[in-house]
Amino acid sequence: MTRVAAIDCGTNSVRLLVADVDTELKDIEREMRIVRLGQGVDQTGELAPEALERTFKEMRGYAALIERHGAEKVRVVATSATRDARNRADFVAGVVEIFGVEPEVVSGEEEAALSFTGATRDLAVLRPLRPYLVVDIGGGSTEFVVGAGDVQAAKSVNIGCVRMTERHFKGANPPSPQQIAGAVADIDAQLAAVRAEVPVGEARTLVGLAGSVTTVSAINLGLDAYDSDRIHLSRITAAQVHDITRRLLKMTHDERAAMGVMHPGRVDVIGAGSLILDRIMREYGFGSVVVSEHDILDGIAWSLA
Predict the structure, then answer these.
(1) CA–CA distance, 102 with 7 (Å, rounded to integer)
(2) pLDDT, tens digit, for every residue of 260-300?
(3) Which of 57, 98, 206, 272 could form a disulfide with 164 if both were Cys (CB 3.0 to 4.6 A apart)?
């Protein structure tokens, strides 16, 4: 058995998993912090100094946890925001100083493969039909992977909840019908590009990952507070996703913030994240989505086994 530490640094959050790995993952520590590393990257092409500092502050805390738990192997993976940034060298230097290892700025395809591994390891209990379409809705990008036991095809496109919010809903409280229509057109164009390269029509089960999807599940379950155990492997129908998306897009910031399941760092981007899920289900014809709390972070941990 090997004790590993996986760090996933995305556009909206930075997450840590310390786990013992053998034939299964046994969590020792699982943490998530909203840092909004991708703040403004879609417009400026650079990581903002204040966003880097927020991220490094949380990473220093993670480094202390890794040392306390005695992890033997550490892997840091950075995704969409860092891929797109001209000043990624500043991010790399900070990570090396904190963890003593160089972060891997992975391609969208590798990100998709790691997400697929993390998400599908424990789906067998549900006996879902294969192949799967695994969809990881991140802050800057969304990954699409079709496969059964292995990845058949994958593609990453720039339609994340932070990117769509900054591009279409910035300052909206709530967004107007015209702003929503603009976001829908943007999302649908990218979904058409995915369909041209990934055989989404062959997939029998849709699996949704990351905070936008899990938050929609929490709302659907009527939870008073976020509960990972109840959310993991839950199922949401297309009609439920459509209804929740419609309601979220009509709410003000304060109304969303008052929801017990809503993380403060997700209040302003959940409408766009839910809309991405909604459009995926409409465009690809899925009647339901299986929600997984396991994703790229678990895939990184498995890669260290």
Answers:
(1) 12
(2) 999 998 999 999 999 999 999 999 999 999 999 998 999 99
(3) 272
